[in-house]
Amino acid sequence: MSASLRSFGIGLFVAGAVLGMVQLTSKESPDTQQSVKDTSTTATTVKTLEKENAALKKELTALEKKLKKQQQKQPAKKATATYTLHIETGMGTTEITNTLQKDGIISDAREFEQYIIDQGQATRLQNGSFTLQKDMSYAAILKALTN
Q1: How far apart are CA 143 and CA 132, in angstroms?
Q2: Which domains does the chain carry?
Q3: Measured between alpha carbons, how far is 12 from 27 in angstroms, rounded to an integer?
Q4: Which one of 50, 101, 124, 135 is CB 3.0 to 4.6 Å from 109, fit for a cystine?
Q5: Residue 26, φ and ψ in degrees, nearest 5
């Protein structure tokens, strides 16, 4: 029995040595095979990303063209209409605010008159000509009329 055991051990030793030699002499090691797989995967990923990039560039170009067309269709914003208010000596806040409402600068003469009074500016309105715009706030109009 010891002879068969010895023969079995020698057989295992020889088989291991042969497999080791085959491993050492083969052209591609497992590390090389993994490296080849990684390179292949990287190349595939790069190609996929390049395709996606090209598609996104086309989509961006189409959206830019669409935006230009929409901008060309939209009319240019109208310039804000200006108005010159002439305040003469003796004109009171009621007459001034009614004139502004009549000419479309403000929507509510009474409300603007009350604003002037609330701000304590009723006696500070100046005589002269004042250029106002229809989109001005009460505060901006009052500032123009008191400076």
Answers
A1: 11
A2: 82-146 (3.30.1490.480)
A3: 25
A4: 101
A5: -70, 150
Q: Which of 7-16, 40-49, 121-130 has the lowest mean pLDDT?
A: 7-16
Instruction: Name the one residue in this structure whose structure tokens are 């009621």.
Output: 94
Yes or no: say if 129 and 85 are a contact pair by the CB < 8 Å rule: yes
Q: What distance in Å separates the CA atoms of residue 96 and residue 88, rounded to the nearest whole number?
A: 10
Cα dihedral 19, 20, 21, 24 sign = positive
Whole-number Å distance between alpha carbons of 135 and 81: 8
Threshold 0.90, pTM exceeds = no
Tell me the C-alpha distance between 29 and 82, whole Å.
85
Cβ count within 10 A of residue 121? 15
Residue range 105-147, pLDDT digits in tens: 999 999 999 999 999 999 999 999 999 988 899 999 999 999 8
Distance, C-alpha 65 to centroid of its chain: 18
